[in-house]
Amino acid sequence: MKRFMLVLLCLLPASPAFAGGPVKLDLNATYGATSFHTQGAMAFAEQVKKYSNGSVDITVHPGGSLGFKGAELLKVVKDGQVPMSDILMGVVAGSEKVFGISSLPRLVGDFKQARELYDASRPLYEKAAAKWNQKFLYAAPWPPSGLVTKGAVNSVADLKNLKTRTYDKNGANFLRSLGGSPVSLPWGEVYSSLRTGMIDSVLTSAESAKNGKFWEVLDHFKDINYAFPLNMVTINLDYWKALDKDQQQAMLKAAAETENNQWANSESRTVEALKVIQQHKIAVSKADAALNKALDAAAAKIIADFRKGLKPSAQAVLDRFAR
Fold first, then answer.
1. 115 burial level (CB within 10 Å; 0-12, 13-18, 19+)
2. Which terminal CB of the chain, N or C, has fewer other CB atoms within 10 Å?
3. Concatenated DSSP letters for 255-309?
């Protein structure tokens, strides 16, 4: 019986109770060390250490090296399998619908509107995170998503049967409604899938196209201003409550600063990334009036479908921004 109890105790999740010395926390990051959002998480960790006078020490683990990624992230943080994580909201919208708001197609047209949408939606995000036993700390946008393709996309006809890697359900439904063939893939498999022809395009930002060196396999970027999807950083509530008041305040201060910096960095990186991919011979173009009209019509259907089952508070946010 004693042996059974010992084995059982070994299988239980680590306790968030901290006995002496600095509080050490692991933060899971899905993207690699050079990724915009991972760098933001690392800056956040440095600021937390500074503002807590070294009493909170966060280690960021890039590239999903802890083995956690994708749709499971809400659950693994909820259960305390990892204390903190950087999470692409749209990927977990299947578990908590409001997290899909930022990746709705063509809901906002620029960074100013994207920030207004985020500020309006943040109370919804905080409440949803709490439901999943998490404290919402901050969120920041990817640069706007466009289509990186092997051939030019100038009309809806060019999207027919296009095998496109999308990052969430909203994107998949959007492209499918336009005749495309969306494919769900982990980010780490995208480049090799382009090489082998499993996919021939990617719905992503110019920043990601730059980081992925997509000019080696693709040659066009259509700036369709699809969405400004958000990544959020959360902490398990049990770990959060185990921190003292000063440590919590240090973390909140660092989160607010990181959030503002990341929003500014996202905008500046968009300009830089577009220049870089053009220097590597990726042709960058915007949609013309006819294509924009078709994209808006498809987006309206996705947004209308997304509304179904939303609570009035979320409906009110969409009413402010939907065209």
1. middle
2. N
3. HHHHHHHHHHHHHHHHHHHHHHHHHTT-EEEE--HHHHHHHHHHHHHHHHHHHTT
Q: How far apart (Å, rounded) are the C-alpha atoms in residues 101 and 229?
A: 8
pLDDT digits (tens, 9 = 90+) for 51-104: 999 999 999 999 999 999 889 999 999 999 999 999 999 999 999 999 999 999
Task: Summarize pLDDT for 158-201 with one digit per residue, the tens.
Answer: 999 999 999 899 999 999 999 999 999 988 899 999 999 999 99
Q: How far out from the chain centre does Cα 279 lie?
A: 27
**Residue from 139, 188, 147, 183 nearest 165 by CA:** 183
Report which residue type is found at 222.
K
Give the pair of three-digit tokens for residue 113: 């509107």
Superfamily of domain covering 23-141+229-273: Bacterial extracellular solute-binding protein, family 7 (3.40.190.170)
The encoded tokens of residue 68 equal: 């956690």
The CATH code belonging to domain 145-227+278-320 is: 3.40.190.170
Tokens at 29, concatenated:
């990051």
3-state DSSP assignment of residue 164: strand
**The pair of three-digit structure tokens given for residue 8, joined into one six-digit string:** 């059982």
Q: Are 251 and 243 in contact (CB under 8 A)?
A: yes
Q: What is the pLDDT of residues 194-243, one digit of tens each?
A: 999 999 999 999 999 998 999 999 999 999 989 999 999 999 999 999 99
Euclidean distance between CA atoms 41 and 77, whole angstroms: 16
Which residues partner with 85 through β-bridges?
28, 234
Q: At 183, give phi and psi (nearest 5°).
A: -130, 135
* 3-state DSSP assignment of residue 317: helix
Structure tokens at 120: 């309006």
**Which single residue is written with the structure tokens 């359900």?**
169
